[in-house]
């Protein structure tokens, strides 16, 4: 199982590679990728250095161009594909059919992966992208149970990559418009969810309110640690109850099921978090590397070590983790 | 590009879980409505089986006899093997065209050489994607709900021949889909033992902020807007942009009257009184921000 780690800048990419990532995925500094945050991502100079750093150590660099361009701006996505191809990246991670079509025609030898943003959850869907664009790997959304992932892998014409650790999207990626409903900007159109430009932290007599374009996402009493107002991870009222109606602030963590993922034939494990610091990337990569190595050497004897769980728990959202949809009761 | 025309109305698939009799009554009324196109089938949750595949075919046949174009809509989020099985059955039916709400449906339909409609969750954001699918038997597509008039105008500059455009014109917006059932969760139940709680919420279950603002609606694994998206005030502009079909998404009351209002608006009737009546029939309030590239929850005159 290949370990695919995130990098929002060159130090993070070096941290990922130095700590054992087999591949690192990055994005350009614009809305062509789904982590379009201020101060993040790569320009020409930094990506050339990134590719050289990876090449010298026999690791790979993937470029995510995984938002959905509108007609007027399609040229920017085309340029992103051309730039990445010119730099000699190892693969593109794409979502939009138009962009896939362009890349597969213009750069027939370039390896294409299907982004999680394409929302594909079945072998039939994978076949569409494989037959039409020659996609050679697919990243599955975080909505399938382990058994369902296993069936997709059995029937899929190409290898399958799944999420192993990081912030948890509880909605099918590529099909979540909650952010644009509240702010006008979504991952699909703009490359960001619950964008910082629309976030307000307000001190109140009883604590802190976090708002997204005026909508109260959560209230924290004094002494309670306030979290970023990601739309699906606030507390809301449904009926008479106030609770995390969609999901708690939590991160996905698959350490405990790595042997299962290996056994069902998962080809690559992806770590979420291009927006995270190099220190975070270093720590998570090191743990995932150790865990995957241990799992590959002796699957039956594998156990998620307490120190790994603690290390990942410490850097997780809300300091807690979940198996998410892999584990049926979560659903 | 400006081909003025009378837009047709469609009734979108029922997003909610309604009692069987309510569904049958609804389509009996729809048969006499001004809507010319009716989308049938379960698009949210495969556990909702009060109306079975054979029932949908029977309803479709009756509507067809009333002169309606009937389309069978496919499930949006595919997870279980059984759901793929149902999809295969749907895509191999010879009676009606299918609305593909997932790429898997497109794969099956193109393999069978069949025409189809591309639903709102397909993510056709630009003319390149549209042209690609047009080359694979796509006959109509629904604009993704978060795209506005500007994106539509640009896209229509390069619209392929023989492809109709449909716009989500009225209804709580389909905003997100998940593996998790939020209606069950709101009752502290797991999805596998949901006790069909969705039946209690024929318009979805309200989610409010902690300061009591109606924000979203839970509909099983789907999340919708609390406000109802409506484009009645923009019918002239939509027609001038070359939109062919306006989709009315069913709500639990007054849907037939809403169809009449849209029909009147499409024929050029004065809008003020129509809009006023429409707003009085929405479960909460209206929104239309997506049309002008604003937050979807915003509402304002154009």
Outline the fold blueprint:
The complex is a heterodimer of chains A (331) and B (302).
Chain A: E1 2-6, H1 10-18, E2 23-26, H2 44-56, E3 60-65, H3 74-87, E4 91-94, H4 97-106, E5 112-114, H5 123-133, E6 137-139, H6 146-155, E7 160-167, H7 178-183, H8 187-190, E8 199-204, E9 207-212, E10 215-221, E11 236-238, E12 241-243, E13 251-253, H9 258-263, E14 268-271, H10 278-297, H11 306-314, E15 321-322
Parallel strand pairs in A: 1-2, 1-14, 2-3, 3-4, 4-5, 5-6, 6-7, 7-14, 13-15
Antiparallel strand pairs in A: 7-13, 8-9, 9-10, 11-12
Helix pairs in contact in A: 1-2, 1-10, 3-4
Chain B: E1 8-11, H1 20-31, E2 37-40, H2 53-65, E3 69-73, H3 81-91, E4 97-100, H4 103-111, E5 116-118, H5 127-134, E6 138-142, H6 149-156, E7 164-177, H7 182-186, E8 205-208, E9 214-219, E10 222-230, H8 235-240, E11 245-248, H9 255-266, H10 271-280, E12 286-287
Parallel strand pairs in B: 1-2, 1-11, 2-3, 3-4, 4-5, 5-6, 6-7, 7-11, 10-12
Antiparallel strand pairs in B: 7-10, 8-9, 9-10
């Amino acid at each position: 199982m290949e370990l695919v780690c995130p990098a929002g800048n060159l130090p993070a990419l070096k941290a990922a590679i130095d700590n054992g990532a087999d591949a690192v995925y990055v994005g350009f500094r614009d809305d062509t990728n789904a982590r379009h945050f201020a101060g993040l991502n790569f320009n020409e100079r930094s990506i050339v250095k990134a590719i050289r750093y990876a090449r010298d150590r026999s690791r790979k660099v993937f470029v995510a161009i995984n938002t959905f361009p509108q007609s007027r701006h399609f040229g920017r996505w085309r340029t992103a594909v051309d730039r990445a191809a010119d730099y000699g990246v190892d693969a593109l991670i794409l979502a939009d059919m138009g962009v896939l079509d362009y890349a597969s025609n213009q750069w027939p030898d370039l390896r294409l992966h299907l982004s999680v943003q394409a929302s594909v959850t079945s072998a039939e869907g994978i076949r569409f992208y494989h037959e039409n664009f020659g996609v050679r790997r697919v990243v599955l959304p975080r909505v399938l149970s382990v058994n369902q992932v296993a069936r997709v892998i059995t029937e899929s014409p190409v290898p399958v990559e799944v999420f192993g650790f990081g912030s948890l999207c509880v909605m099918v990626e590529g099909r979540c418009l909650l952010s644009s409903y509240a702010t006008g900007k979504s991952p699909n159109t703009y490359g960001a969810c619950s964008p910082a430009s629309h976030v307000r932290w307000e001190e109140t007599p009883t604590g802190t309110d976090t708002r997204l374009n005026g909508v109260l996402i959560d209230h924290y009493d004094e002494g309670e640690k306030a979290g970023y107002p990601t739309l699906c991870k606030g507390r809301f009222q449904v009926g008479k109850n106030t609770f995390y109606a969609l999901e708690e602030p939590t991160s996905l963590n698959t350490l405990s099921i790595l042997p299962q993922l290996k056994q069902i034939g998962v080809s690559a494990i992806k770590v979420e978090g291009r927006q995270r610091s190099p220190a975070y990337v270093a720590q998570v990569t090191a743990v995932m590397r150790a865990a995957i190595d241990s799992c590959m050497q002796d699957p039956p004897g594998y156990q998620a070590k307490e120190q790994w769980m603690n290390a990942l728990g410490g850097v997780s959202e809300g300091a807690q983790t979940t198996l998410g949809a892999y584990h049926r009761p979560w659903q | 590009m400006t081909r003025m025309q009378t837009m047709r109305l469609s009734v979108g698939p029922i997003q909610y879980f309604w009692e069987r009799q309510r569904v049958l009554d609804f389509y009996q009324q729809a048969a006499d409505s001004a809507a010319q196109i009716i989308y049938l089938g379960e698009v949210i949750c495969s556990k909702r089986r009060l109306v079975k595949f054979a029932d949908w075919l029977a309803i479709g046949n009756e509507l067809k006899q009333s002169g309606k174009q009937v389309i069978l809509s496919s499930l949006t989020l595919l997870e279980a093997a059984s759901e793929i099985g149902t999809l295969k059955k749907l895509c191999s039916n010879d009676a009606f065209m299918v609305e593909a709400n997932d790429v898997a449906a497109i794969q099956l339909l193109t393999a069978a050489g069949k025409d189809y409609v591309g639903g709102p969750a397909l993510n056709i954001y630009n003319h390149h994607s549209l042209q690609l699918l047009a080359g694979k038997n796509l006959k109509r597509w629904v604009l993704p709900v978060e795209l506005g008039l500007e994106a539509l105008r640009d896209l229509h500059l390069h619209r392929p021949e023989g492809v109709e455009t449909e716009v989500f014109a009225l209804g709580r917006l389909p905003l997100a889909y998940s593996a998790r059932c939020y209606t069950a969760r709101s009752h502290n139940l797991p999805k596998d033992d949901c006790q069909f709680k969705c039946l209690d919420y024929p318009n979805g279950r309200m989610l409010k902020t902690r300061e009591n603002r109606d924000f979203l609606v839970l509909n099983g694994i789907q999340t919708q807007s609390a406000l109802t998206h409506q484009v009645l005030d923009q019918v002239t502009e939509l027609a001038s942009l070359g939109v062919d079909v306006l989709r009315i998404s069913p709500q639990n009351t007054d849907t037939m009257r809403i169809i009449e209002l849209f029909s009147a608006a499409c024929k050029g009737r004065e809008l003020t009184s129509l809009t006023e009546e429409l707003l009085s029939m929405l479960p909460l309030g209206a929104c239309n921000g997506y049309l002008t590239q604003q937050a979807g929850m915003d509402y304002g005159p154009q």
